[in-house]
């Protein structure tokens, strides 16, 4: 049962100290009492959208476990508020906390489409899949207001360049028209996250995401329109959703997913403190058991930085999860394959460029 001081609609229940700062702040009980007596809100719990102006937008990924070489993120921070999110730690680079700041202070890159176009015009660039949302969800609530993701997809279509999308939001269907055009040329792959079939679990684990029903419907609509979907059953958290591997795989397959992948949760950096605080407030009776099982997957620690091991874990529990995933692939994905994206169209269209900075003539 949740505690009385639980912050509804948020994953993190605190702001952790920024590791790059010498000083930190805390909310004291006497301040909270003062606010109560004065009839004031101690924390309005509002989301802020803050514009930033980076010089580049495409990032090269050096992490061999990431499964991608290049990514771009129209937004930093994510209002979805998934309590386990590995991207929380990156918010500290911007001067904020990995906790509540990560989901309430959203940095917006309105120049992203222009920066992407400049990047794709480089003569030295050779087509490689660029993944939208390698860090934070490109279809989080801010996208409804800013439309940056849609504008970037228009750039990818213009250049006939392959793009991947990682999301857990049904808002992707807003851009079905562009996705269908990309799919015609085998330029798009969607990776849609489904973490649990339980709405009760989803509400506290991923508080500002769409329902599980809506996510499965999204997979179905994309698949019906020949847009290839890989389901991401991630992260698998021992004691919370680890019993759902088989039913999750069955559900996404029945709705048209062509493949699935999974990771075992790891709680690096500030995420360990954030997750443990959240767990003790939402599931106090099972908190110790869950934390212990996570440690058993990562050599006795909540965090794990070992390349090749950190995403799947080790030990008995991790092996059980691995076995269930193997069985699920055999039962539900035996004759399914995710197609490779087309790297040739972008290269072929380079001959239409008058010069490296000139206007493309693709149409």
TrEMBL record:
PANTHER family: SLR0285 PROTEIN. The keyword Metal-binding applies. Gene3D superfamilies: 3.80.30.30. This is DNA repair photolyase. CDD domains: Radical_SAM. One of its GO terms (molecular function) is iron-sulfur cluster binding. InterPro entries: Elp3/MiaA/NifB-like_rSAM, MJ0683-like, rSAM, rSAM_sf. Keywords: Iron, Iron-sulfur, Lyase, Metal-binding. Residues 61-301 form the Radical SAM core domain. SMART domains: Elp3. Pfam families: Radical_SAM (PF04055). It comes from Arenibacter nanhaiticus.
């Amino acid at each position: 049962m949740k505690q009385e001081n639980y912050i509804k609609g948020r994953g993190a229940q605190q702001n952790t100290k920024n590791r790059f700062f010498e000083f930190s702040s805390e909310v004291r009980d006497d301040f909270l009492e003062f606010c109560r007596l004065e009839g004031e809100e101690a924390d309005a719990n509002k989301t802020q959208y803050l514009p930033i102006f980076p010089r580049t937008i495409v990032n090269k990924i050096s992490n061999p476990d990431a499964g991608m070489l290049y990514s771009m993120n129209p937004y930093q921070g994510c209002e979805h508020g998934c309590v386990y999110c590995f991207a929380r730690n990156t918010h500290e680079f911007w001067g904020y906390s990995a906790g509540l700041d990560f989901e309430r202070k959203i940095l917006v890159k309105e120049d992203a489409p222009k920066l992407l176009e400049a990047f794709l015009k480089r003569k030295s660039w050779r087509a490689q899949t660029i993944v939208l949302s390698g860090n934070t969800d490109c279809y989080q609530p801010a996208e409804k207001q800013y439309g940056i993701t849609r504008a970037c997809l228009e750039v990818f279509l213009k250049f006939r360049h392959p793009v991947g999308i990682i999301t857990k939001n049904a808002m992707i269907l807003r851009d079905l028209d562009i996705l269908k055009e990309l799919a015609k040329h085998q330029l798009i792959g969607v990776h849609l996250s489904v973490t649990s079939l339980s709405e009760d679990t989803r509400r506290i684990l991923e508080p500002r995401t769409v329902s599980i029903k809506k996510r499965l419907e999204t997979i179905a609509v994309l698949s019906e329109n020949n847009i290839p979907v890989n389901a991401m059953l991630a992260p698998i958290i021992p004691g919370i959703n680890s019993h759902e591997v088989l039913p999750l795989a069955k559900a996404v397959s029945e709705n048209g997913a062509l493949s699935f992948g999974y990771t075992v949760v790891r709680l690096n950096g500030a995420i360990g403190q954030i997750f443990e605080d959240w767990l003790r407030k939402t599931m106090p009776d099972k908190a110790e058991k869950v934390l212990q099982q996570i440690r058993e997957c990562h050599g006795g620690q909540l965090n794990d930085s070992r390349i090749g091991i950190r995403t799947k874990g080790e030990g008995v529990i991790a092996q059980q999860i691995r076995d269930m995933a193997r069985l699920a692939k055999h039962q539900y994905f035996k004759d399914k394959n995710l197609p490779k994206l087309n790297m040739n169209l972008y290269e072929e269209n380079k001959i239409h460029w008058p010069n490296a900075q000139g206007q493309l003539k693709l149409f």
